Structure formats: C-alpha cells, structure tokens
Amino acid sequence: MYVRCIANDVAKLDNELVKMRLADSIRREGQDEDLLLGATYKVVAIERWGDGGIRVYLHTVEENDYPYPYPIEMFDVIEPTIPMGWCVSLEQYDCGMYIKRIGFPEWANDGSFYERLVDGDEEAVAVYKNYQHRNVSGHPSPPNLTRS
Length: 148
Known about the structure:
By secondary structure, this protein is α+β, with helices and mostly antiparallel strands. The chain is built from four helices and seven strands, in the order E-H-E-E-E-E-E-E-H-H-H. Strands 1, 2, 3, 4, 5, 6 and 7 form a seven-stranded antiparallel beta sheet that branches.
C-alpha cells in the first residue's frame, strides 16, 4: 500500500471536524517536517486510534529503526493493495467489533509491538527491519516513488 502526502500540517486540512478530532490527539502545531508534500510513501502498518481515526505508519526518518503514525487524512491512497502476508487484528468495543490494526503478523497481533519497536527492543527491531527490507513479489509499486 502506498500513499501520497497532500498535507503536512493538520491546520491546513479542509474538514473542520477532522481538525477538531486530531487536535485532541496531535499536540504539535505547524508543518510536520518529516512529510514532504507530493511525496509517495510505503505504508508499513495501519491502525485505528482511540480518537476514532485511522493512522498509517510510514518510515519517514531514515535514521530511525521505527516508523511514525500519521492521520490518513493527510494522504491520498495511490496504491491500495495490502501486501501479501499482512493480517487484520480485531478489537471489541461497546456495540460490536472493529478493525484495530492491519500489518505484518507480529505487529497486527501484538498490541505492544510498536512501543517495543520505539523502545529499541532488539527482537521487535529485527522483525521490523526484516519486513521493511523484504521485497514482496506480486505487490505492485506505484509510479513516482521519489520523495521530491
């Protein structure tokens, strides 16, 4: 799955309800310097957050061993194909079930995987790097994968 950045500042989004929802969960103002307008990014996981919104995890800082979550509203989905081998994690809520997380199995099925990854847990980092560098055959790549 690939997305193209259409906004790198929550305040510049068109939908006022989305901006209000995100204001409660994003505690920074101004442009996100890690996101380049018009750049295409490979999605490494998808998750529903407590604010009800969807975050896509993108590896935007080359030096880090982990990706960052960004609101899907900041992107256009340009290649919606989910990579082979990804899993869906479901979660119970008051009125039923919803999709909580989509990603490679270790991430999708482990609610603490991302925290362990950010904390530098060697096992989590090794698993993430393995998937990050894996070239999944049969997964289409969109045109213009440059970050310019």
